[in-house]
Amino acid sequence: MDITQYVNVKKKIGASGKSTIFKNLRKSKGDVICDLSTIEETANAVRSNLVQYMVKMLIKSQQIYDMDKEANKGCLIPDEPKTLDYARIVLKYGQHNFADDTLAANTDIEELGTAIDYLWKVSAIQETFKRRGLLYSFPDNLEFFYDKCLTVMSTKYAPTEEDVIKARVRTTGKVLRNLFL
Q1: How many other C-beta atoms can be found within 10 angstroms of the C-beta atom of residue 129?
Q2: pTM over 0.85
Q3: How far apart are CA 104 and CA 81, in angstroms?
Q4: CA angle, residues 17, 22, 23, in degrees to nearest 5
Q5: Is residue 70 within 8 Å of residue 138, measured between CB atoms?
Q6: Which domains does the chain have, with CATH numbers?
Q7: Is 114 annotated as contributing to ligand binding?
Q8: What distance in Å separates the CA atoms of residue 54 and residue 132, rounded to the nearest whole number?
Q9: What is the C-alpha to C-alpha distance for residues 55 and 75, in angstroms, rounded to an integer?
Q10: pLDDT tens across 160-175, in order?
Q11: 42 assigned ligand-binding residue
């Protein structure tokens, strides 16, 4: 089976990382994978994913706790003012599309980054994260980006090649690239 047949098979099964395969192939051939549009698209996608999945973990934390309060007590978000304030900030931007570039000010994106970074370190969020795959879905490699959230949410963030490869960017339509192996 050649690479074209392989990709045609993979297309039929949905979100399978086809674009990641091609990014890695392009990189292995010495092609540039960090052009300006890819950098912008990756930064927007990673930021959106960080916010959307933090919202999901905040919600899932409560749902998992409610399923069995004793067994899942580690998933209960602490009722602390700082934690609740940061949760409100994240929830405020839960549906934000970073490609629109409509955050009120550059400080908003960095404040959002501080909130996500703080919440990511909350033990209840970590407990909820450990239950991914069993009770809810979660994109590959997002933990990598949560660990460097302050960098990603900085107004000066430019994705590295590793970021571009690890980012889950939804691809739609057809993209034609010639790869000579």
Answers
A1: 18
A2: no
A3: 24
A4: 95
A5: no
A6: 32-166 (1.10.400.10)
A7: no
A8: 12
A9: 14
A10: 888 888 887 665 555 5
A11: no
